[in-house]
Amino acid sequence: MRRLPAWLPCLLILLCVACSRPTLPRLAPDATVLAFGDSLTYGTGATAEQAYPAILAGMIGRNVVNEGVPGETTAQGRERLAQALDDTRPALVILCLGGNDFLQRLSPAETRANLAAMLSELRRRQLPVLLVGVPQLGLRLNTAPLYGELAKEFDVPLEDEALSDILAQRSLKSDTVHPNAAGYRALAEALRDSLSRHGAI
């Protein structure tokens, strides 16, 4: 009996991982993307034209609506999400919230519950979402584990490295918790790559 090549099991494992990756529907050329979040979405530390939604719009050739509210917690975001969805009628949502919860040392369980409620609302409306992981407080800027848990629970794509990498580099920050113009461009590039990797563009 002919032996199988030693590399074949590894290839099969890689294929299984690729097949299990959450996918996003391809965005139509006239689609609207809703960037929903706090100051990291708003673009604090840079101009409106340098915020990641504006940069991302140019990169992907779609309308990206900036619905970032500085200082917003996940509880506040949960309250305004439905209205933002009604107003913009997006084809896809980029959800980036949680930083202010961490800064205010709010309960991680409440943060998780609020994000889960938002993801449930998006699922109810059959709206695809890209979840963006936010670093938690600590000596090392690691993305809070709750984002990975939620991405798995709701089977949605997760970008969990970009913000941690950007905020770990002084040259990409305007202050201790916000990117500068170069940092927001790096975030837009990472989100573009994630959208492409998951099939949206």
Automatic annotation (TrEMBL):
Alphabetically ordered keywords of this record: Signal
Domain SGNH hydrolase-type esterase: 35-186
InterPro entries the record matches: Ester_Hydrolysis_Enzymes, SGNH_hydro, SGNH_hydro_sf
Organism in which the protein naturally occurs: Chitiniphilus shinanonensis
Signal peptide, first to last residue: 1-28
Organism placement in taxonomy: Bacteria, Pseudomonadati, Pseudomonadota, Betaproteobacteria, Neisseriales
Gene3D superfamilies according to UniProt: SGNH hydrolase
Protein name stated in the entry: Arylesterase
Domain of life: Bacteria
